[in-house]
Amino acid sequence: MILVYIEVRDGKVKKSSLETLSEGKRRADELGLDTAAVLVGHGLKGLDSGIFPYGASKVYLLENALLSHYSPSGFAAALAVLVQEAGPEIILFSATSMGKDLAPRLAARLGVSLASDCTGTAVVEGKLEVKRPIYAGKAFVTFRLAASPQLVTLRPNVFSLLEPSEAAGETLIKEVVIPEDDVKDVVSEVAREEGAALDVTEAEIVVSGGRGLKGPENFDLLKDLSALLPHSAVGASRSAVDAGWIDHQHQVGQTGKTVSPNLYLAVGLSGAIQHLAGMSSSKYIVAVNKDADAPIFKVADFGVVGDLFQIVPYLKEELKKVLAE
Amino acid sequence: MNIFVCVKRVPDTESKIRIDHSSNRIIEEGLNFVLSPYDEYAVEEALRIRESEGGKVTVFSVGPDVALATLKKALAMGADEAVLIKDVLPEAYDGLRVAKIFARVFEQKYPEFDLLLFGKQAMGSDNAQVPAMVAELLGLPQVNVVTKLEIEGNSATAHREIEGASEIVTLPLPAVLSAQKGLNEPRYETLKGIMMAKRKEIPVISLADLGFGADELSPQMDLVKMESPPPREAGQVIEVEPEEAARKLVDFLHNEAKVI
Questions:
Q1: pLDDT for A21-55, tens place per residue?
Q2: Distance from CA of B1 to the nearest CA of A (A)
Q3: Which of A73, A287, B45, B86 is the most exposed place for a label (fewest CB within 10 A)?
Q4: Do the domain assignments include residue A117?
Q5: SS (H, E, C) chain A
Q6: pLDDT digits (tens, 9 = 90+) for A148-171
């Protein structure tokens, strides 16, 4: 069985979990395995129906009143109970904030290694192989996991969703018993960042700025562009973040986040090596920069040499026209 | 407050990574190695807690002899003690292996601590695994990717960065916490600190001292291949009037890339 952990945020199943399930289903078909999904929490009933269309033939709902809020130690303890019972060969997580926090805890509990933040999977000679970036994407490694179960987290926004099917499956609600002592790191509150609906790692379009913006106020230009573009978020270079122009949450690159959106629009951003590492797996890269020799143009699919302060206002108008069509 | 910080020696972020395909390893020659940037935030946080709460800061690293330089850097920043756990295996990208070593060190040799700090991930392996694994192996609560930390008596309140928000967790000590950028601004070493670090004796623990058998720490991840990222080819670059440039750019996005 391939077991896929499904993350619930604000009472909803995360899209990246469904991407992970879709990829799990593709590999399970090649390996001749079943695909199951697992949710952990309290009051999960009803969330199963949105999961079956993406390839799960079984959905486990692990219920415990202690787990109504996220706790890495508590959630790992609950998952370990199911793993003992169901004996999956492979367990997949999406490498979200929660997945990156929870999967290693479970791995250690099971005594197995973990391949983190993978961007590719394949079945070779009947075995699962996973590929992951190292050095923030300056190199890639391909692994086979020797231990069982094989634990893997998959990078969000990389794997395609299956075409939803009509298939239904079986829902198994389990009251898991976990020692209260195992639950000491419960999230008590979630403080939302104002105006940041979408994280750069989750966005389909990232509008990113660097030193060329010349000051914090000019990030408004990018925020305006982002407001026009659906599923987009504002990114930034390290130098813009270190200058205090925008919060670190937005930083893309080796000391920030690694992103792979459909479109990366780099504005006034030269493309230092540690920045390129964090975004060069984007499907399309487009750059506006006044320096024709900026390294960003070496990776851009389309580049405009010119003054961003003159170009961006026209860009906004042109985008509006196209989006209105 | 007895504070432990686990650190790693890594190539700096400006490094160009070259691969030796015969051994499936990166070529270390010519690389500049540093204290992993996120670990610097962890060391800084430990020093600040010591300054406000009193106590002692000890840094630990698993690695070859050259990792002593990384520990010296943390000592020069102001840490009180440092310990090297000598491990000559080249980077295996296997977090569990390193977590098992740290967990054994703390169980057997250094069981008394209130806080166990890490960087949120080591630069390079980019696993973000070891803190949570050590927490689990030691049966401790964890908060990873911490951007704000307050200690009050025997408990800590940490803000943890998630997608577009922060999770707030209050947990009892001892606990495992990992530092994210934004937690603080790491200090520079002082000349006095550098001189002190030079003179400081750093005890070295071997894996045999920890009672590990020959096979017990074999990596469980078989490295099949290491490769460079697929090269991106530069596309067209235009230099025309702003209005025309904007029109052509949007035309590319809409008609060629079809991303809007």
A1: 999 999 999 999 999 999 999 999 999 999 999 99
A2: 20
A3: B86
A4: yes
A5: CEEEECCEECCEECHHHHHHHHHHHHHHHHHCCCEEEEEEECCCCCCHHHCHHHCCCEEEEEECHHHCCCCHHHHHHHHHHHHHHHCCCEEEEECCHHHHHHHHHHHHHHCCCEEEEECEEEEECCEEEEEEEEHHHCEEEEEEECCCCEEEEECCCCCCCCCCCCCCCEEEEEECCCCHHHCCCCEEEEEECCCCCCCCCCCCEEEEECHHHCCHHHHHHHHHHHHHCCCEEEEECHHHHHCCCCCHHHEECCCCECCCCCEEEEECCCCCHHHHHHHCCCCEEEEEECCCCCCHHHHCCEEEECCHHHHHHHHHHHHHHHHHC
A6: 999 999 999 999 999 999 988 999
